[in-house]
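WARN no homologs supplied; continuing
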Amino acid sequence: MSITFLTAIQLIVNVMILAFIMKLTLNPRDFFFNPALRPVDYLTTPVLKPFRKIFRTTQTGWDYTPLIGIVILIVINALALFVLDYSDLNSNLKIVMAFVKSFKNIVGFLVPVFSVFVMLILLIPAHASNVLANFFLKIIQPVMKLFQPFTANRKMRVMIVFILFFIIIAIIWHVLLVWEHDLIDPKAQAKNLRLSLEQDSHLEFRDYIESPKVFLFAVIDIANKIVNIYWFLIILLIVSAILSWVDVDPSNPFMQLIREISDPMLEPLRKVVPTISGLDISPIIAIVIIKLIGMVIIGILDKILNVGVGLPI
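OK structure emitted
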């Protein structure tokens, strides 16, 4: 029961943090004029309203209350872990471990979500407008400018930034694994990573956890989190297909948000796949393609992990 409750808290916290990041990045006018962003406004406004009475905007007009909200949510997530998890740790370590795990949980959620935004940027034409793609572009724009002298192609610069982002996250993930080793009993952590270390092994766990093999484990773990987002895309396409077959107001904010994600995946297929008796089968084909690609990539990652690291996932 406590695990289910903890999972629900973490999901709510992660979604709210993503919403606060969007409020921090996008212009207030974007939320007013774009129906797809109104669900974000519905989630964040009741929470931020009390903070705005205390913390006023800066002289440049920047509203930093979403940043305060993010910090509070990280603390809430850590406190939930402190109370409901790590019962086997002593009290001196529990709070530190709770914050480490809280940060790891948030990173593990945001990485695949931002990967979806990158996919949208790569799929839509440069002249097209997509609110989610524009949101992520605003985040990475300062880094993209650094590579402008090398390539004028926007999608190429996005891919370069994504690769750098992936490497940085993998390094952070590796550091978090090391921290977990320092805070948890080595044998318990070895079991958590599904290692089989002999008691008389000459290889100390500390040496193993800092070795290139565990860095490869971190890389594969992050890659798996990105690839596993295909389940979310499949569910989204199913919902999009069902909604397209029933009478739903197209101006509905939630419908707009679903279309912002699903349309860039379906439009290329609709150009080559004809309708059957007026029925659009492009969502079915997209689901099959995404499922096959996901299975192939996960199979490759499993083999790399088993051969290169010796850790079954």
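The mean pLDDT is 76.
OK
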